[in-house]
Design brief:
Strand order of the largest sheet of chain B: 1-2-3-4-5-6-7
Distance between the termini of chain B: 72 Å
CATH topology of the domain at 32-49 and 77-219 in chain A: Lipocalin
Number of domains of chain B: 1
Number of helices of chain A: 8
CATH topology of chain B: Metallo-beta-lactamase, Chain A
Structural class of chain B: alpha/beta
Order of helices and strands of chain B: HHEEEEHEHHHEHEEEEEHEEHHHHH
Radius of gyration of chain B: 22 Å
Helix content of chain B: 25-40%
CATH architecture of the domain at 32-49 and 77-219 in chain A: Beta Barrel
Number of strands of chain A: 11
Distance between the termini of chain A: 97 Å
Shape of chain A: globular
Number of strands of chain B: 13
CATH class of chain B: Alpha Beta
Oligomer: heterodimer
Largest interface: A-B, 45 and 47 residues
Chain lengths: 312, 355
């Protein structure tokens, strides 16, 4: 009797299968504490990009103008101080990453994979239960709405409903129309995370980035997981409603990056062509800009003890 | 392929909104135009839950806000008249309570078109001498609240050849001060006037306890700010309104969530989305203002492409509100407010002139 009921139940579940949630098949378990390794694109990720360095980004003219008018002082506005890195960018920076799985207590089906990033204290949900993405009128968030599936042991994640952010934090924008596909692969204690970003507003081709994480063998101190941001008024006499920006053609530092590193101007302003090996031929033929003048030496202290008396 | 779909979808949505606004802008002209020019048969109402007691209805006109509770229902903006049946069905799917109030955020037809039908589906709450004097008429319809300038424009003679908006669609209660506020459904509702922005009769509607702000067309996510100069709109007023919205909204966790913002057109938003839009509007205005100070002509300003960085997101080369019109409107208003300095004549020129 019990066996018969089981067969009936199985048959019923197969018939009703089309309406059941499409739970993802089991793949690699990414649970644990992960920390990035920064050997890849280190100058861009740790000290941060220099102004007007758009090398290797498949941006269009609109993105270039946006970045060319970018004044970092905008981040001093109270409403901008706690601006979060969107999920296509947040994994690039310094962060501690905790990953865990949410499972249905009754069936142990995988409902979601959760990412908690210490940077900006962001919790991200990757739904694994087959639910659809929200409609076009739903709100957008920093982390976006993500759904995942396994291809073998590789986790593939699709993300929509992102807020406007940037693809490089020197003002190169990412629009709220961007969509991201991620591929996460675990090799032992190393996780490789590949991001493919498509932005119909600011990119002419998909932007592909990758970064590696190493699994931590121990939990981190609680405080390392926090990121408290309380905006304050930093510039008291700034008129209310002021939005710092340069006129597009009049960025005062527009030549600094190229001249400091002796890179032809044609190379620094990005564009899809700068991603490909053939562009090296263009660079070889392009004129190298004059170097920046040497910094002034022999400056005199105007405060504190005279230099000759220091340490006495 | 994904990019193509995204782009097409975005373009289709934009054209839909542009068409709605095109009809709406004529609006002071009336809902008849909407019925003549737009087919609403295939329009579906998308109901987006914002809070347990606040919903956003997205159809073909401006977004509608539905606020429910024990006192009844308040509806902010009513889209086009032909959509009234669908809007009422969507409202009834949320609540079967009485519709007590309609609030119009401004005069455009894509926001007031359903006033007559939806108000007739409701009942204002009144008693005492009011009912004694007016009889059943005192409670036969829901009240329609708007800024005084909305009533002024609707009750004025329409342009030649265009129909008057029906009397039954006019506001029944107007306000002339900075704001009107009252308690409804156990929470403070603030209707706040923002002068000379999208039009001269714009209102924000803030549900203080639910922490939801309906902005009308003082904020959208789909196009450049529509400065309806013919109805009293100005770019400076529009930017002031965006800053006023940001003064009301408070983000929750690191610039996300918190006060939710229902835009006049487009998707559900929050303060950060308004900030991005405010930044765009301010940057474009400031660029053109500076170019005007430098004495540039409109053609010279356009050649500088002051909106290039925002065009793929908000711009349009066709429709009733093109990027070019946006730039021209700002240019004219900046010239009017900041006339370029007249070139000074040199002594030789002055001498030559006198000779």
């Amino acid at each position: 009797m019990t066996k018969l009921m089981s067969v009936i139940a199985l048959a019923a579940s197969l018939v009703a299968g089309a309406s059941l949630p499409a739970f993802a098949q089991a793949g690699a378990d990414f649970s644990g504490v992960w920390q990035p390794r920064y050997h890849e694109d280190q100058p861009d990720r740790i000290p941060g990009p220099e102004l007007t360095d758009y090398t290797g980004l498949p941006i269009n003219d609109s993105a270039r103008q946006y970045a060319n008018s970018w004044d970092p002082s905008r981040l001093t506005l109270p409403e901008e101080q706690c601006r979060v890195h969107v999920s296509p960018y947040i994994y690039r920076g310094p962060l501690n990453l905790r990953i865990w799985e949410d499972k249905d207590p009754k069936t142990q089906d995988l409902i979601a994979i959760k990412h908690y990033s210490s940077t900006f204290e962001q919790t991200r949900t990757i739904w694994m239960d087959g639910r659809p993405h929200p409609g076009p009128n739903a709100a957008h968030t920093w982390m976006g709405f993500s759904t995942g599936r396994y291809d073998g042991d590789m986790l593939i994640v699709e993300t929509t409903h992102l807020k406007k952010g940037w693809v490089r934090r020197n003002g190169v924008p990412m629009s709220d129309q961007a969509k991201m596909t991620e591929y996460m692969v675990r090799n032992g204690e190393v996780m490789t995370h590949i991001v493919v970003l498509v932005d119909p507003v600011y990119l002419t081709e998909p932007l592909v980035k990758s970064q590696d994480f190493v699994r931590s063998t121990r939990e981190l101190p609680a405080g390392t997981w926090l990121w408290v941001c309380d905006p304050v008024l930093e510039i008291a006499d700034r008129p209310e409603g002021d939005v710092p920006a340069y006129l597009p053609d009049e960025h005062p530092f527009k030549e600094e990056y190229a001249r400091r590193h002796q890179i032809p101007f044609v190379g620094i302003y990005g564009g899809a062509q700068t991603m490909y090996p053939e562009f090296q031929d263009v660079l070889k033929k392009a004129p190298i800009p004059p170097p920046l003048p040497q910094p002034q030496t022999g400056a005199q202290r105007v405060t504190g003890a005279p230099q000759g008396q220091q340490g006495r | 392929m994904m990019r193509l779909q995204t782009s097409t979808s975005r373009k289709a949505r934009f054209l839909s909104v542009a068409a709605a606004l095109l009809v709406g802008a004529a609006l002071a002209v009336g809902t008849a135009i909407a019925q003549q020019n737009q087919n609403f048969d295939n329009v579906q109402i998308d109901t987006v839950k914002v809070r347990d007691n606040v919903y956003m209805l997205v159809g073909a006109g401006g977004n509608t806000t539905v606020f429910t509770g024990s006192d009844g229902i308040m509806v902010v903006d009513t889209q086009f008249a032909p959509l009234s049946t669908k809007i009422l069905s969507a409202i009834r799917a949320i609540s079967d309570g009485p519709i007590r109030y309609i609030v119009n955020t401004h005069v455009h037809g894509d926001h007031i078109g359903g006033n007559e039908s939806i108000s007739k589906a409701g009942h204002f709450r009144a008693g005492g001498n009011v009912v004694g004097d007016l009889g059943a008429a005192a409670t036969a319809t829901a009240a329609i609240i708007a800024h005084e300038n909305v009533l002024k424009r609707l009750s004025a003679d329409p342009p030649a050849g265009q129909p008057q908006v029906p009397f039954a669609a006019w506001p029944t209660e107007t306000y002339i001060t900075k704001k009107r506020e009252f308690l409804f459904n156990g929470e403070a509702v603030q209707i706040i006037h923002e002068p000379d922005a999208h039009t001269d009769g714009d209102s924000l509607v803030f549900f203080r306890k639910a922490d939801v702000l309906a902005t009308g067309d003082l904020f959208t996510t789909v196009m450049y700010p529509f400065i309806d100069a013919a109805n009293g709109g100005t770019i400076d007023g529009y930017i002031n309104a965006l800053n006023a919205i940001m003064d009301i909204t408070v983000a929750s966790n690191v610039n996300e969530g918190g006060t939710m913002v229902i835009p006049g057109h487009g998707r559900l938003s929050d303060e950060q989305d308004v900030t991005e839009y405010r930044n765009m509007a301010t940057i474009v205005r400031d660029r053109i203002k500076e170019y005007v100070k430098r004495g540039m002509t409109l053609e010279q300003v356009k050649a500088k492409k002051p909106t290039l960085d925002f065009d793929p997101r908000y711009g349009s080369d066709s429709g009733f509100w093109t990027t070019s019109m946006f730039v021209e409107t700002i240019y004219k208003q900046m010239v009017a407010a900041n006339p370029p300095a007249k070139p000074t004549q040199s002594k030789n020129q002055q001498k030559g002139k006198s000779e």
